[in-house]
Amino acid sequence: MGQLELSAVTKSFGSAQVIKPTDLTIDEGDFVVFVGPSGCGKSTMLRMIAGLEEITTGTVSIDGTVVNDLPPVKRGISMVFQSYALYPHMDVFENIAFPLRVARMPQAEVDERVTKAANILKLDQRLKHRPGELSGGQRQRVAIGRAIVREPQVFLFDEPLSNLDAALRAEMRVELSRLHNQLGNTMIYVTHDQIEAMTMATKIVVLRDGMIEQVGSPLELFHMPKNKFVAGFIGNPNMNFIEVVCETTTAEGVRVVLPGGGSVTIPVEGQAAAGDKMTLGIRPDDLRAGAAEACLTMAPEVIERLGNQTVLHGNIAGAGQISAVVPGNLPIALDAPMDLGFDGLQAHLFDAQGVALPRRIDLSEMQLPDAAE
Amino acid sequence: MIDKYRWYEKLAIYAGMLVFLTFILAPFVEAFVVSLRPLDQVFRVPYRFITDDMSFSAYVTMWESVPRLGRYIFNSFFISCCVTLLALSCIIPAAYSFSRFSYKGRDGLLGTFLAINMVGSAVLIIPMYKLMLNLGLLNSYFAMVLPGAAFSVPTGIFLMRSYFLRIPKELEEAAHVDGASRIYTLWRVILPVALPGIMVVAITTFISAYAQQFLFALIFNSNSDLHPLPMGLYEFFGRQRIIWNELMAASLVGITPVLLVYIFLQRYIVAGLTAGAVKE
Predict the structure, then answer these.
(1) A237-360 and A4-228 share a CATH fold
(2) What is the CATH number of domain A237-360?
């Protein structure tokens, strides 16, 4: 139940191919997040799964059945839209009951199911209100209620939180994760917000220009991005990229020369020849104030004090803009050059094509099995 | 809200409104005043606006002078209602199709409708007469209802189409995902949401049907039982004299159905009925 498979799926509008051939398997109970910059085809892919867009070539199958030509309701999916798409002339009860009314379900069962959904979503006090009388978060919950009442196998969410304010969005993220744990259904969620992806997903699919760049768990994507695009997209603030030159490859990894003149060994698999141009990736949180073996010198141009930490933005000589996250109590002066050290173990290395050299880290060390299992 | 007009700008605005309203309302005021005067005092010289001999007696005697006046008013009302219903039953599906489906020749068709609207009914009256004659529709209610509906359809389609375009597509997609058919969605979702727009179209159609039926009745109908009010008013034109005061009284009474329809329907033109459907 709720297993979904895309094989060689493409989508073209006229001569423009917006989805390049794509294969993807989504297991039952997964919370999959499609993430990518706007225009990357993530919404189109979701709408193809939903049955709102025709599939140009390839097949989509749910639980082993090819659903290309089935209408949405026969696919066993339900969808929550970015704009909520509530029926303004119906009250909350009728909005949630709409799919059941379409299916001509007996009134007793409608009552039971709507009440159940309303309880899950804490809407039981609002059933007689119209959507116009509700707040943004409540409207979103009504839209979710309409999706869950039919008890589908797969839920599709198209940027459901992007119209909410920041505080409400954080709250709804938690509620959605809780809902997923409670219902255990497969959920596919589209967003351009990598924080939503990182916090809710069991599996993230990063898309760019209609192509899947990488599929993996949040930590996998964070620690072992396959290329510069994924590395730059996941994580906040964004990863710093610094142009470096390869010095040598040893058993410990690849040794590169930093712009300041120092050099550092980065423990990665693979080979690089001396003199190769490469890109070193280091997350702002992995930089720390003070000299170290691997060291960059930056004069902060913008200082963002968040209290618990301070984010610095500035230039390093000959290597462009970087950011750093340092402890909030660290004294910092604007435009005063300071040393930022890092550990080669934390760094990422990309070849000239932007493909990552695999890092030697073990993700299984970072996770314990769930207590319930 | 801040008061953004200076006193002389306000003065100019109110002066403009006064001129406009005077032009619009003066005939009604004069008609009302004439209806109150005794017939021999209507052309009194010098003109006096308010006189002692005013009374509502014309409103009583007019029913005796033209015994079928009630019937004429009913005919007018009935013809306009039929025109409105017939026109709406064409406008709504057509406008929905223009706003939601894309097919070859759609925009051309819409342009054609508007072009026809520009020609106007008076120009086409002779061909229409031939048409009615051949179809055997002359001297029936149909003869007045059909052209009335036909000429209000293009404007109605245009109005209704722009209203449908404002209804977010997601509403239909959501209903589609939930398993509703197109007809079910149209009936249960789109039409209720479009109700204010439908009411606007219904009111404009009704009013224009009430106003334009004179021409069609004059040409296509010679059965005096079926005459609408504008034709019926001719019966106040006697051989020797025209009963002006009763004519004015009958005209004013004759437009009350329009007022009633307007008051009844305008309650449905509620702004913001779509509030809460989607985030804008």
Answers:
(1) no
(2) 2.40.50.140
Looking at residue B53, its pLDDT comes to: 82
For A261-271, write each residue's pLDDT tens digit.
Answer: 788 899 988 88
Separation between Cα atoms, residue B175 and residue B177, nearest integer Å: 5
- CATH code of the region B67-274: 1.10.3720.10
Domain boundaries, chain B: 1-55, 67-274
pLDDT (average), residues B12-36 = 93
CATH superfamily membership of A4-228: P-loop containing nucleotide triphosphate hydrolases (3.40.50.300)
Is A160 at the interface with chain B, CB within 8 A? no
User: Could you state, in order of their start, the residue ranges of all structural domains in chain A?
Assistant: 4-228, 237-360
B179 closest CB neighbour out of A52, A73, A85: A73
Q: What is the pLDDT of residues A77-94, one digit of tens each?
A: 999 998 888 998 899 999
ipTM over 0.85: no
Q: Do B193 and A102 touch (CB under 8 A)?
A: no
Which carries the bigger pLDDT value, residue B45 or residue B104? Answer: B104
Sequence-ordered strand ranges (E) for chain A: 4-13, 16-26, 31-35, 57-62, 65-66, 77-80, 154-158, 186-191, 203-208, 211-216, 240-250, 253-257, 263-266, 277-282, 288-289, 294-305, 309-316, 320-327, 338-342, 348-350
Contact call for B171 and A134, based on CB within 8 A: no
Q: What predicted TM-score, i.e. pTM, was given to this entire model?
A: 0.80
Please answer yes or no on whether A52 and B176 come within 8 Å at the CB atom: yes
Between chain A and chain B, how many beta carbons pairs sit less than 8 Å apart?
A: 86
